[in-house]
């Protein structure tokens, strides 16, 4: 059974989610709640959000193939499907070379992982891949419902849609800061982006999009930072988010940075008033 993700979702690291935030976002009309930062194989964090809500989809973006045993993930998927039918999307990815000691043959590892999910009867239409480059994008189109790229731009979304073709889900994540002072917003953005600029898969993808070593130096050029972290009023930010949808995304997954927990809700309410 396919899942209706809606046109707008919300992305946060798993440890930043909680029932209060999940319920508030469901009430605002967001379609999917995405759990990042390597949820565990038992998928308990997703289960908590599903139990707290009634209709919103909960997805992982992403379960790390090096850290979460595929057979266990398959068993957990079926538990969630029994408890909350049609409301869970399993996003899987390969993680980062810099953070994984056993990192080798990443593409083949993903293929093997999908094979195990097949053996565990996890439907193709209920799983997605964290895909950035053409090879994994093609794998996501062939073996899953689609792709959940992270740290991208509307240009990447356009290229990804061309690679995926029609009828395949594409859900990019986009960071935002609801702040009209550019220097304050960029300071928040650079602080958050610092870790990502040290990870080779993101750096490679940004260079594939035309950014240079100069763009990545000293916390990131203004052009790069402004592309990766939208800032301004809700209306101004909505224009940047809509650019992903116009470039071919099925849903845009918003990550509001600079606040935590329920303190995020006013910002998401402002964005919902414009987007939903």
UniProtKB/TrEMBL annotation:
GO molecular function: oxidoreductase activity, acting on paired donors, with incorporation or reduction of molecular oxygen
Name of protein: LLM class F420-dependent oxidoreductase
Domain Luciferase-like, chain residue ranges per copy: 20-117
Keywords: Oxidoreductase
SUPFAM superfamilies reported for this sequence: Bacterial luciferase-like (SSF51679)
Domain of life of the source: Bacteria
Record bears the keyword Zinc-finger: no
Gene3D superfamilies per UniProt: Luciferase-like domain
């Amino acid at each position: 059974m396919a899942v209706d993700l809606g046109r707008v979702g919300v992305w946060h690291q798993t440890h930043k989610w909680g029932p209060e935030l999940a319920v508030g976002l469901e009430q605002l009309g967001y379609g999917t709640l995405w759990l990042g930062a390597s949820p565990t194989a038992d998928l308990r964090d997703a289960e908590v959000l599903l139990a707290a809500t009634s209709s919103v989809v909960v997805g992982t973006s992403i379960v790390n193939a090096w850290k979460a045993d595929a057979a266990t993930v398959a068993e957990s998927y079926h538990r969630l499907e029994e408890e909350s039918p049609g409301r869970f999307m399993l996003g899987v990815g390969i993680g980062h070379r810099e953070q994984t000691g056993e990192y080798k043959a990443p593409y083949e590892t993903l293929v093997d992982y999908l094979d195990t999910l097949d053996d565990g009867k996890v439907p193709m239409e209920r799983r997605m891949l964290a895909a950035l480059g053409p090879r994994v994008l093609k794998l996501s189109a062939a073996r899953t419902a689609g792709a959940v790229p992270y740290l991208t731009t509307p240009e990447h979304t356009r290229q990804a849609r061309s690679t995926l073709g029609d009828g395949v889900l594409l859900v990019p994540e986009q960071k935002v800061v609801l702040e009209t002072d550019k220097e304050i917003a960029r300071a928040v953005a650079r602080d958050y982006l610092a870790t990502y600029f040290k990870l080779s898969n993101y750096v490679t993808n940004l260079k594939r999009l035309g950014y240079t070593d100069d763009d990545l130096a000293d916390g990131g050029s203004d052009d790069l930072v402004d592309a990766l972290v939208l800032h301004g009023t809700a209306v101004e930010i909505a224009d940047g988010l809509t650019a992903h949808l116009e470039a071919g995304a099925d849903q845009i997954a918003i990550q509001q940075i600079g606040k935590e927990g329920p303190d995020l809700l006013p910002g998401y309410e402002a964005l919902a008033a414009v987007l939903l």
